[in-house]
Design goal:
It is a single chain. By secondary structure, the protein is mainly alpha-helical. The protein has one domain. 52% of the residues lie in helices and 0% in strands. The protein is built from six helices and no strands. It is globular, with a radius of gyration of 14 Å. It comes from Jeotgalibacillus terrae.
Amino acid sequence: MKNIFNPSHAEEILNRINNLSPNSKPQWGQMDVAKMLAHCSSFQDIAMGNTFPSRGLLGRVIGRFVKPIFYNDKPLPQNMSTIPAILIVDEKEFDTEKEELKQKIIEFQNNGPQNCANHPHPFFGKLTSEQWGKGIYKHLDHHLRQFGV
């Protein structure tokens, strides 16, 4: 499984983000490309320990049992539900969101695994830095595939 802490894997993700345009259309789901970038940026904030969404009841009950879906080798399913706190409903500006996400990825990768959030994932619970690194890559890959890059 690829890991965002690997410099070549991070570079691959950044290059794919650069291939997006304001006119990129989703192959599934309802977010436009700017909202998707904002969503991914909000997820980065969780992994970086900048935001701390509370854990829902369902996550507390089954999160630890299903958390390998976050970091295993299988792609995330299309139209998977998201953490309510990072569901983007407001209109977003593409170029701003694109640059903000790229900067967060670079910062996260440069800070290294030792600076991952200690706060539990809002659904899956406690994650190791390796699980965060793989999960961040997998989440970004999922949404970039959503938009054909």
